[in-house]
Amino acid sequence: xxxxxxxxxxxGSLALLIMQMRRGRQAQxxxxxVQGTLLVTGVSPVRKG
Length: 49
Description:
With 49 residues, the chain is mainly alpha-helical. Helix content is 49%, strand content 0%.
């Protein structure tokens, strides 16, 4: 039983590692932001009228 858990743990760790490596290649929003700035996402402009 514990062998299956160890294999599952190793497989999950490898999957997370691969996902992090793939994500690192893409340009992430806010990576070039000045330190101390707040990145706000999902905010629509206010409609007037």
